[in-house]
Amino acid sequence: MSYAIPERELLHPGHVACPGCGAAIAMRLALKALGDDLVVIIVASCWSIIAGPFPYSSLQVPTLHSAFETGGSAASGVKAALRRRGRPDTTVMAWAGDGGTFDIGFQALSGAVERNEDFIYVCYDNEAYMNTGIQRSSATPLGAWTTTTPVASPKDTPKKDMVAIMAAHGIPYTATASIGYPEDLVRKLQKAASIRGSKFIHILSPCPSGWKSEPEETVKIARLAVQSRIFPLYEVERGERYTVTVRPPAVPVIEYLRRQGRFNHLSVAQIEAIQANADRAWERLLERAESGA
């Protein structure tokens, strides 16, 4: 019997993620997809803690921890060192949260992909600085509560479109993925590993602590993000060719929002505005996919 997801486990027991952590599920799937001929660069984030205290690690592959702002440069350096050692085919994966990608680490990431460095950069996006107290990042969605955007003044600007920014660099491969659709996630990482040059994978990773959601609903929430078209699944090749990889039956955004306490303060009008924004973004994505650009 064949499986779409490899059975081998390279994330072993002993990690210290919170119950229901989407980022832990994302790492488990990523390691299954990429195998053990892999070096992981963990950028400062929740995963700096989740992996386990030095000298122990729950990851059964070589791992390097880097500073918040150095994910792109650290991955570039490790890949150069592997080529020097005669291992050009070993995959290098930078693993960063939204803070280390959208904000603090953006300069190193942009510089590295502009040079088309040969690595996979994964952003596991939990939409805030969760490891340091649930502060807003530029990945935090419009209207969300965080400790720095309290209910009386929730975030009043939209989420940065990081996929569009990466695609604008013209890199070989950019894609979104979700732990709610594991086969799609695994396929995209395996495809990325087969391509030379810079690859960017954006994984939505629900955080029960920061999203005020129930741990057992993490995967369901991730699926609802896709089904409500808040977080569509697609890929962009060479910055031009858009392909929608999952087209599920649409559900109202309220089904996604109501499972998260960070959105409990929203009015009916605000929810309707979020629905309209999601619908417009979905139509634009379909137009790009259908036009081939």
Secondary-structure arrangement, i.e. CATH architecture: 3-Layer(aba) Sandwich
SSE series: HEHEHEHHEHEHEHHEEHH
* CATH class call: Alpha Beta
Number of domains: 1
Tell me, rounded to a whole number, the average pLDDT: 96
What is the approximate shape? globular
User: Which secondary-structure class do the elements indicate?
Assistant: alpha/beta
- What's the tally of helices? 11
Instruction: Indicate the percent of residues in helices.
Output: 25-40%
* Largest sheet: number of strands, sense, barrel closure: 8 strands, mixed
Weakly predicted, low-confidence segments:
none
Strand content: 5-15%
Short overview:
The chain has helices at 22-34, 46-50, 71-84, 99-103, 106-114, 162-168, 182-193, 208-211, 218-227, 253-257, 268-291, and strands at 38-43, 63-66, 91-97, 120-125, 173-178, 199-204, 234-237, 241-244.
3D structure, described in words:
Helix 1 packs across helix 7 and helix 3 packs across helix 5 (106-114). This protein has 11 helices and 8 strands. The relative contact order is 0.13. The protein has one domain (22-291): Rossmann fold, CATH 3.40.50. By secondary structure, the protein is an alpha/beta fold. Strand 7 and strand 8 (241-244) form a beta hairpin.
